[in-house]
Amino acid sequence: MRRSTQNRSARAVGRIFRLTSLLVALALPALSMAVEELRIITSYQPSMTHPMLEAFQQRYPDIHVRVLNKNTHAAVDEMLAGNERRFDLFWASAPEAFVVLEHAGLLVDLGHGPHADFAWSAVGWTWRSPHGPTGQFPVPQDWNDLLDPAFAQSIAMSHPMRSGTMHSLLETILQDRGWQAGWAWVLELTGQLNTISARSFGVLEGVVRGDFTIGLTIDFLALTRSTDGLVFRYGRPVIMIPARIAALRGSQHNKAAHAFMDFVLSEDGQRILLRPDVRRIPVNPDVRAELAESLNPEVRAALNFSWSRYDPELAARRYWEVNQIFEAFVARDLLLRRDLWRRLRALSQAPAAERTRIRRLLTWMPLTEHQARSTSQNRETLVEWSERSHTILRDAEALIRLLEQP
């Protein structure tokens, strides 16, 4: 009797266990469907993304967001290679990167066009107080002031192949001055450089540590570091650059991607850009009006004129060429070119005509824009351009050596 009761109890427990297992198995798909994933690839650091993501998660707790930080150039390369990791959104400051992806057919319109502008920025330079009018050096007022010999080996920038911010800065110079004059300025700036950093954030860290005096950067990166003593000045003329967000082809979570884009562009999302730890300029004019007293007057004026707007289409058409020219003529020969500028400036007593001849060599870009864009985008082209740069520098060095002889 006792054994029969035990058997019945065991069978009852077994039925309850199987029923419970069945209910759990039936519930799991519903639970997994309730939580949707959103994958974002971005060039922004957590200090920029976290406030927006935190507010978004509060509104959409059932969407699990995963974020990968990657520099703009590398992110574009990954998307062009097929987006194998199935990112849903691309979020960055360099607008030409979005044009490149759009032309490749890799962006999806979820109701905001192939990409959406969500903020404005502009480039310039930063330094650490108490340097400045009452400190150790006069603050550069415009781009040409950065070429003052007083700043030789005191300026840092990042590489445009690793920093979308710096590519935009380089394009700002080229678009404002034209191809030849723009490159001439960049080649002379090389004589002022202390280093070329791998990332934009490395420039700011170096200025904070005192490794160099001036860092070329974009406004929001420096403005959010004011507690570290960083001061920022816009380059003149101020040229406004749109920051963007876009949905990617290959996405598996379009609904979540659409929700996030809507939130970033909403008044609540735009107002987050005003936070002191974000310091972006909203595209929404009503929200931007809340910055009326603190917004730089030159920025306010630039936002009202189309001539002061950055041209992402132009930047995208020569995206590869500009990056590779910088690599071939600036980055690879940084030490030699910088030393030649130092030696030329030391020849202040040499004949003016000879110094002018050498200066022309050091600021000469032997490639027109048409020639650069007509070449094949491969390693052989980069090697050829590097050889042309080095030939010019050898010629300049030979002339300098003659003038250095007693």
Automatic annotation (TrEMBL):
Gene3D superfamilies xref list: Periplasmic binding protein-like II (3.40.190.10)
In its keyword annotation, does this UniProt entry include Translocase? no
Q: Which UniProt keywords apply?
A: Signal
Domain of life, source organism:
Bacteria
Q: What are the GO cellular component annotations? A: outer membrane-bounded periplasmic space
UniProt-listed PANTHER family: PHOSPHOGLYCERATE TRANSPORT REGULATORY PROTEIN PGTC, THIAMINE-BINDING PERIPLASMIC PROTEIN-RELATED
Q: What is the name of this protein?
A: ABC transporter substrate-binding protein
From which organism does this entry originate?
Pollutimonas harenae
Lineage runs:
Bacteria, Pseudomonadati, Pseudomonadota, Betaproteobacteria, Burkholderiales
